[in-house]
Amino acid sequence: MLTIAQLAPLKDRDPYLYETLVKIVASVNATSQRAGVDPSTPSPAPSPIASVTVQAANGWFDISIADPSDSRPGLFYFAESDTTPAFSAPRVYFMGASRNLYVQLGNQTLFWRAYSQYIGSQPSAPITFGSPAIAVVGGGSSSGPVPLPSSGSGVFPNRVPRGANGFGVHPGSRIVRQALL
Asked: Which pLDDT does position 128 carry in this prediction?
């Protein structure tokens, strides 16, 4: 958030300059909040997605996100897969603005979840495929290489590989504070 500490004395001395600077400060602050780049306060998380659907055959996984919420431009989607329903080391798939992902992962059994995030906001709560999470079998005759360990996504203190972080979380957020304890 932009502030100009010396603005108050200008009000009596030069009201036109004062008014111009107030409008500039308000415009810069409004733009930074809309763009999600206000360093003082993270934008709130978007509404959680409605559901995620997954089907697989011959090693291909087809993921579809349903999100009927009203959103502003710049909403991005993420899908995550893991070999356990706890998502302790999820693989993150950046989907951009698309709500569909079609990816070849071989004959693996994976659990899936998805969430959305604006740049500069907290991520929405992740929604799993099934409740509790349901395993999806890739099928086919080839299992492909063993996946490398997950490196997570986004910016996170101490580079701890964690899921459901998308672009990262604001340093003052509850999620980061809990992780540091």
From this structure: 97
Distance between CA 111 and CA 131 in Å, rounded? 11
Q: What is the pTM of this model?
A: 0.70
3-state secondary structure the chain: CCCCHHHCCHHHHCHHHHHHHHHHHHHHHHHHHHHCCCCCCCECCCCCCCEEEEEEECCEEEEEEECCCCCCCCEEEEEEEECCCCCCCCEEEEEECCCEEEEECCCCEEEEEEEEEECCECCCCCEECCCCCCCEECCCCCCCCCCCCCCCCCECHHHCCCCCCCCECCCCCHHHHHHHC
User: pLDDT tier at 180 (50, 70, 90 boundaries)?
Assistant: very low
Triad 173, 180, 49: Cα angle to 5°: 45
Report, as an integer, the average pLDDT of 59-85.
92
Provide, for the chain, the percentages of residues in helix, strand and coil under a 3-state DSSP scheme, each rounded to the nearest 5.
20, 30, 50
Radius of gyration of the chain (CA): 21
DSSP 43: B
Helix (H, G, I), strand (E, B) or coil at 82: strand
Q: How many CB atoms lie within 10 A of CB 151?
A: 10
Asked whether 165 and 87 are in contact (CB, 8 A), the reply is no
Q: What's the mean per-residue pLDDT of the chain?
A: 83
Q: DSSP 3-state assignment of 178?
A: helix
